[in-house]
Amino acid sequence: MIRYYFEDMPVGSEREIGPRTVTAAEIVEFAREFDPIPFHLDAEAGEASMLGGLAASGWHVCALSMRMTCDAFLLESSGLGSPGISECQWVAPVLAGDTLRGKVVVESARLSASRKGLGLLGLRCELVNQHGELVLRYWNIGLMRTRDAA
């Protein structure tokens, strides 16, 4: 069931996402498959690195933010995907045991000039850990159907 359309996402609105605790096992599992850098695979290598412990891949953290966004509202929206991320910042490491939460903020919104019934949202996503430290920030465009197009 669709609960959220373009019109429900005005500029300045925020959606809370999370929380999600990141486990050592999932950090290693993701790293084995997609980012096999030693500090993502081994606690001792993580401790010896500048990251200070077993650290999640930045790509893993992005995937976690996507999951939290889906769980919070996206799966109940008229979302049609995204043409991409314009900027992504891995601000601080995400370590095993960290609990992440965050927000998605609508920074801009406009109707498509070429496709009737399509809205474009300029979104900023931010995640913080359990200490309130910013760990991830990115900007992307979200495509959503308008209510009258549904």
Brief sketch in words of this structure:
This protein is an alpha+beta fold and 150 residues long. It contains four helices and five strands; from the N terminus they run βααααββββ.
Question: What's the layout of helices and strands?
Answer:
Elements: E1 14-21, H1 24-34, H2 38-41, H3 43-48, H4 58-72, E2 84-90, E3 99-111, E4 118-128, E5 134-145
Antiparallel strand pairs: 1-3, 2-5, 3-4, 4-5
General description of the model:
By secondary structure, the chain is α+β, with helices and mostly antiparallel strands. The chain has one domain (6-149): Roll (Thiol Ester Dehydrase, Chain A). 24% of the residues lie in helices and 34% in strands. It has four helices and five strands, in the order E-H-H-H-H-E-E-E-E. The chain has helices at residues 24-34, 38-41, 43-48, 58-72, and strands at 14-21, 84-90, 99-111, 118-128, 134-145. It has a five-stranded antiparallel beta sheet. Strand 4 and strand 5 form a beta hairpin. The radius of gyration is 17 Å and the shape is elongated. It starts with 13 loop residues before the first strand and ends in a 5-residue tail after the last strand. The mean pLDDT is 97.
Tally the beta strands: 5
CATH topology: Thiol Ester Dehydrase, Chain A
Roughly what is the average pLDDT, rounded to an integer? 97
Shape: elongated
Gap between N and C termini, in Å? 12 Å
Strand content: 25-35%
Low-confidence stretches: none
- Please, how many domains? 1
Q: What order do the SSEs take from the amino end to the carboxyl end, as H and E?
A: EHHHHEEEE
CATH C-level class is: Alpha Beta
Strand order of the largest sheet: 1-3-4-5-2
Helices and strands: which structural class?
alpha+beta
| Rg, Cα atoms, Å | 17 Å
Main sheet, how many strands, which sense, barrel? 5 strands, antiparallel
Q: Please count the helical segments.
A: 4
**Name of the CATH architecture:** Roll
Helix content: 10-25%
Q: Please name the fourth-level CATH homologous superfamily.
A: Hotdog Thioesterase
Quaternary structure annotation: single chain
